Amino acid sequence: MPDTATSTDPAVQAQLDRLFAHGPGADTLGLDRITRLLARLGDPHRHLPPVFHVAGTNGKGSTCAFLRAALEAAGRSVHVYTSPHLVRFNERIRLAGALIEDATLAPLLAEVLDVAEDLNASFFEVTTAAAFLAFAREPADACVVEVGLGGRLDATNVLPAPAVCGIAGLGVDHQAFLGDTLAAIAAEKAGIAKCGVPLVTMDYDAPINDVIADLAKRAGAPFYPAGRRWNLGANPRLRRVFISDEDGSIALPFPEMAGDHQMANLALAAAMVRRQRAIEIPPAALKAAATTACWPARMQRLRPGPLAGMLPDEAELWIDGAHNPSAALPVADTLAELAQGRATTLVLGMLANKDAAGVLAALAPAVSQVIAVPTPGHTHHAPEYLASLARNARLPAAIAPDLSAAVAQADTPVVLIAGSLYLAGEALRLNDELPD
Known about the structure:
alpha/beta; 38% helix
């Protein structure tokens, strides 16, 4: 699915209009266009502070959030590049701790677009080039860079020598680009491996670990898989997460972000920090990251606002961007724990290229009813189709014309909006709760 963006700033919107007019209008992979584009800009990607590069199907954004929180707790200034944005394009580029301002963004995009006209560069490639150009110009101590799609052919993979690379949770998604099997997808993710750069991963099934190990060896990257080179443990009674590796062990608080799955993302971030040697980050900073990291639209409870106000005062409105089965499973577990037996409505909207049946099967045990909605601005599964899937799963189902109507229609103590980050972003916009 192609990216989209609008801005309330006329100068930024003018450049976004240029971007949509000259690009291919679809997702593209490959390093040729981004390499040529960056060369015309003076190769800014070769002049960045130490980079923490993170790939994965699920959890890579949360891992980036924990990395940023740890670096900032250590007193470091951090550039961050993530995708997609939820409400504002500016969310993709964070300069030394703050979202890029419109006054900086508009001329930056113009500068990149001025030299990209004949390259047919994609939305993501232009955005990546703009981010790297901004990062090279603005002083900072580190960069946290999230892979957009895959790894091997992702535009961010032009980075020549990160301080450390990491791979978060793996699942089947974006099959048209990455392959239909977990092994094929893992191989694409592991394409970020670089000679001499530690590659830190979660613990996957043996065949997947073997695929990544082989690619790391061929790249000359020291390989640090969980379960072999480092370990994760947890003590729910003490609310502590334990990470151990060749440098010893450390106990961290449970993450403040909702969901037990965030323990693994926190652990991956900590393991990456402990394997890199570019920046000193003390244990106290890792402990602080556990409780200060925030990543919007990942099991986030909405604050009082226009959208949440459509529910009774005691009702809870949650959002999550889960859009594939492997992401939906931990969301279902978290939702069941939060609801504590209370009836729960799932407001579901999904893009047309996503496995709606798989996501609904994962979430169904934790919900009481489904209200299906369109995903505005994107090609999506018809609400009627989503409702039929819910009924096949023996759940009462209805449809609503939009998100506001769906929330107004919900009549349970807990409501979860899920199925798409774009839908979650729409919920934040309607609730006047912009990510910062």
